[in-house]
Known about the structure:
single chain, 3 helices, alpha/beta, about 30% helix, Histidine-containing Protein, Chain: A
Amino acid sequence: MSKGWITLSGEVEWWYLKDAAEAAVLHLTGVKEVSNSITIKPRLKADDIETDIANAFKRSALFDARKIEVTVTGNKVELRGTVRNSSERDEVEQAAWAAPGVYSVSNLLDVEWSWFSD
C-alpha cells in the first residue's frame, strides 16, 4: 500500500474471486483507493479447448475440417494439415483463436492450390 492506494494483481479463475479480493481490502483502515488489476484466466483442459475448436471447424462451411489436425498443449494450439487457399488458412486460424482459453496458435497449415490439377 502506498499513501492509501492498493494495487491488486495476479490471476483468478472466476470473476467473483476478483471481486471478492477487492471487497476484502476495500474497507481496511487507511485504504483510500483500490486498483484491481487481477486478470481472469479460466482453467480449461486441453481436451476442452480441442473439442471447442473441432466443433467450430464442423460448423464452418468454408474449409474441410477433416484435413486439419489440431494439437493442444496447455493453452497453446498447433494447426497442421492442408487447406485450399490462404483465406481458408486464415479462417482456420481465426476459429482456433476464438476458442476459450487459447493463448497462442501456431498455424502450420499448408496451402494446396486447387487449380494445379492433372
